[in-house]
Design brief:
Layout (H helix, E strand, L loop, with lengths): L42 E5 L15 H10 L6 E2 L9 E2 L2 E6 L5 E6 L13 H13 L1 H6 L3 E8 L2 E6 L6 H5 L9 H5 L19 E6 L5 E6 L16 E5 L4 H9 L5 E5 L1 H8 L4 E4 L6 E5 L2 E2 L14 E2 L7
Helix pairs in contact: 6-7
Length: about 325
């Protein structure tokens, strides 16, 4: 099970020590049941600024593609929170990690009982199938420039060996382009187009690909009823995501203001100011300029995630005083 390619890359999840220290939230505790929570379900309409070019995560270089594929394909490292104001922070596919004393070797312990949508188990072999692809491609090597080798000392442990110390390596593994893909889907991938997401079952994420209009003007994702996070009460709280495309920023804000969509993505400064001026809308986003506007009825959006993860998002009726 050893992989020793002569290339370098890097990964990330915490920073302390392998044989000595571990990192990553391993808490599988369920949230306490609370009366009066909004019901799960419904459709979230999320306006994209451009057509998704590729839904293969490694080839998804544009924001629209990354927004869509991140809901289907999960990276090895993530921190998740549940819907309905759940404040827990639960680790993703790697439930914990640790590094060697000099941060050149990183070990990731995988969660058990997780399968891709096509039934393939998520184990060390599946992770190695993905890392082989990363190390063999220019895209993967650019994302992980310090990675020298990967192996699997146990079926549920993957070890990454770097060319030099990197205490932020787990953060690199959280990039949406490093979303894990089923080995079966990788074997059947097109040399040009990459993974055929429309065939179904390529990811472990909270949503599955349902359909895309021929001109890619609208993409529809549906709840993954077998998502591993559901048993930990992490969602998804939505039945469906509908992602129409509208290139004009002002037009996306207008769609938001008149209720045709609940979220309008990728707003520039002027469009964000316009959305903020509406008391029924909020604006979220980080320093990368990729702000998005949301109706006040939308809950669970993280402001600083860059590409939003929508498993913990839910819709609720907003009181008149809010």
């Amino acid at each position: 099970m050893t992989r020793l390619p002569a290339v370098a890359s890097a990964l990330a999840c915490a920073a302390l020590a392998l044989a000595v220290t571990g990192c990553g939230g391993g808490d599988d505790g369920e949230a306490a049941s609370e009366p009066g929570l909004p019901p799960e379900g419904g459709t979230l309409d999320f306006a994209l600024a451009a057509e998704p070019e590729r839904l293969d995560p490694l080839l998804a270089t544009d924001r629209a593609s990354q927004v869509v594929t991140r809901q289907i394909h999960e990276p090895l490292v993530a921190t998740l929170t549940g819907p309905f104001g759940d404040l827990r922070e639960v680790s993703g596919l790697a439930k914990n990690s640790g590094s060697s004393g000099d941060a050149t070797i990183w070990r990731f312990h995988l969660r058990s009982r997780i399968r891709f949508g096509d039934g393939t188990p998520l184990n060390a072999s599946a992770v190695l199938a993905n890392t082989d692809r990363w190390l063999a491609s220019a895209q993967g090597r650019a994302l992980l420039p310090d990675l020298a080798a990967v192996d699997a000392p146990q079926p549920d442990i993957v070890r990454f060996i770097l060319t030099g110390p990197d205490e932020s390596f787990p953060d690199q593994l959280a990039q949406p382009q490093l979303g894990l893909v089923s080995p079966r889907a990788l074997r059947e991938a097109s040399p040009v187009e990459g993974v055929r997401v429309a065939d179904g079952g390529s990811g472990t994420g909270a949503f599955e690909f349902r359909e895309q209009e021929p001109d890619a003007s609208t993409t529809v994702l549906a709840r993954n009823t077998s998502w591993w996070g559901t048993r930990l009460r992490l969602g998804p709280a939505l039945d469906q995501l509908v992602l129409p495309v509208e290139a004009g920023q002002d037009a996306r804000v207008a769609m938001l203001a008149d209720g045709r969509v609940e979220i309008a993505d990728d707003l520039g400064a002027s469009a964000a100011r316009e959305a903020r001026a509406d008391p029924l809308l909020t604006v979220e986003g980080g320093g990368d300029g990729a702000h998005f506007g949301a109706e006040r009825s939308v809950r669970g959006i993280e402001a600083d995630t860059g590409v939003p993860v929508l498993s913990g998002v839910w819709l609720t009726t907003v009181g008149a005083g809010e």
